[in-house]
């Protein structure tokens, strides 16, 4: 099967921001990060609403999808930066401005490939 040139990726991954689901009691879900740090009811309601909508068009971005040794921009950004999109963008900005590869890995080759 031929690889597509682009693929969609989430900007803000739910589990990165709020943690994995730990309980679900009658439609009210609870998540590890929220319960550990900020377990008040108004925040739980906001997080539950976000959980229902984070897989919508407004939270996706197209990324180039050509592979380099089984890595794409999606796999690179998710593993290297813990799935924080802002950190990934800062690294790309640095590469494009200074042409310096801070990570000592394949980001420069991925950019050239795509």
Structure description:
The chain is an alpha+beta fold. It has helices at 14-18, 32-37, 41-53, 73-80, 85-98, 107-113, and strands spanning 6-10, 21-25, 28-31, 60-64. It has a two-stranded antiparallel sheet. A two-stranded antiparallel sheet has the order 2-3. A hairpin with a 2-residue loop joins strand 2 and strand 3 (28-31). The chain starts with 5 loop residues before the first strand and ends with a helix.
Question: Can you give me a brief rundown of this structure?
Answer:
With about 110 residues, this protein is α+β, with helices and mostly antiparallel strands. Helix content is about 45%, strand content about 15%.
Spatial order of the strands in the main sheet? 1-4
Number of strands: 4
Per DSSP, the total helix count is 6
Quote the distance from N terminus to C terminus. 19 Å
Task: Give the secondary structure arrangement, pairings included.
Blueprint (H helix, E strand, L loop, with lengths): L5 E5 L3 H5 L2 E5 L2 E4 H6 L3 H13 L6 E5 L8 H8 L4 H14 L8 H7 L1
Antiparallel strand pairs: 1-4, 2-3
Short key terms for the protein model shown above:
114 residues, alpha+beta, two-stranded antiparallel sheet, 6 helices, 46% helix, elongated
């Amino acid at each position: 099967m031929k690889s597509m040139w682009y693929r969609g990726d989430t900007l803000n991954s739910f589990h990165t921001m709020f943690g994995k689901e730990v309980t679900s009691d009658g439609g009210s879900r609870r998540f590890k990060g929220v319960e550990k740090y900020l377990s008040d009811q108004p925040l739980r309601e906001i997080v539950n609403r976000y959980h229902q909508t984070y897989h919508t068009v407004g939270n996706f971005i197209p990324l180039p999808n050509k592979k380099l040794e089984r890595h794409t921009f999606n796999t690179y950004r998710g593993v290297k930066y813990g799935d924080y999109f802002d950190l990934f963008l800062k690294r790309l900005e640095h590469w494009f401005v200074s042409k310096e590869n801070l990570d000592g890995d394949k980001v420069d080759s991925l950019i050239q490939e795509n």
